[in-house]
Amino acid sequence: MIDQQFLMWTTIVGFFAPIAIAFVQQEPWSQILRATVMFLMCIIIGLGNCYFQGKLYLEDINAIITSVLLIMVTAIATYKGLWQPTNIAPRIEHLTSGIHVEEFHQKMALRAA
Length: 113
Hints:
mainly alpha, 78% helix, elongated
């Protein structure tokens, strides 16, 4: 059974998921690859969330599906609404992908335009 505490912690995990995803994402990747990586990372994070909350059982398939979907929706919303506009996630992606600083500022200027 899905309780309120499970939903609250799942939403909190989803809020911070874009930071974890930014460590894996690489700036030069295509949008299709980036979306695929985000989708797979949300599945992994959702399964981990269920594991740590003691709901990783086939009998609790509703909790697993709810966890993955809620994390995915929350991660996308907070990435677009907070982590991307503040350049926190793009900076993490930049630092982990090895692109030079000048290229990073040019890409940020193009995104802002």
